[in-house]
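Reopening this ticket.

The earlier resolution said the output was attached, but the attachment link was broken on my side. Pasting everything inline this time so it's all in one place.
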Amino acid sequence: MGYVLTQEGFSDAISQLRKTYRIFAPVRKKGAGRFTDVDAILYDEVNGSEEIELHEKSDYSAKEVLTPLSETLFYFTEGVCKEADLDTRPVLLFLRSCDLQAMKRQDQIYLANGMEKDFFYQRRRELVHYVLIGCSHSFENCFCVDMKANVSEDGYAFSVDEADGMYRINVLDEGLNAVFSAAATSKEEVVPAHVTQNEVHVRVPETIPAEIMKHPLWDEYTTRCIGCGRCNFVCPTCTCFTMQDVYYSDNGRVGERRRVGSSCMVDGYSNVAGGGQYRKTQGERMRFKVLHKILDFRKRFGYDMCVGCGRCDDVCGEYISYSNIINKVADAVDAMEKEGR
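Inline output:
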């Protein structure tokens, strides 16, 4: 069912929804960017519709709501282990199509990866319902069209598109019809806006031979990449984490265990007992990251991990373009095929 709301009507609808749901959405943070006069758009819990940023891409992804950068999993004493408390109110999470598609990748890793479901992720995930923010135009560095993440036809409770002070809502969750019907000026069919063309294009090879592992294209990033991990932390599909135990007592028997976001690109992440290190150079780490996004994940689950949001390109302090790396891989594969390798 589709509805058209004024700004006041949309505000009223959000106020009604807040009686039942916690609402998380992109929020403009004044002066929180790289410089004091630069804003940042970050995810946060909102108290009203005026806080929700609908027109610009967020600097960080919506995954932070489901997988916080630092999350206490449980507390322990010498004789008791207790799960950390969790706010059990349902959540509405505003995100764009690329991030909605990315959440499916998160579910795949944490809930359907051929092992036991991740309890701590699952208990958060069961509370979350998505709200699709329509995309009327492509943003800088986005290549969601080529990654087939530009359109979401389902998987959300309702969608929202704003233009000239009017809000067009497409409701898929029938339980929410009453809220929007009461606030709407009219009812009509609404199709969420979506991007049909990006300025940035990528060409993902259908097959990638194992020889790509030794290709010299990765050597460039041993000198260019500084291993800050920014690309991983803003990526909506990256799932790397590490564990930290925080002790309250000198004997180490009272404390808490935390899951902390980490990065395959930072020094030390691939270290193992005995001083071994699987990927020593930044070129090797870049190879691992890229091939995981466009090869390994697809082999396991049948589709690519990357959704083309372009945040990795946005945030890289060394101006390394991930989309350009994908195209370099495609060119290298073409050259190998010509050589008969």
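Reporter confirms the inline version is readable. The chain has a mean pLDDT of 95. The CA atoms of residues 23 and 46 lie 6 Å apart.
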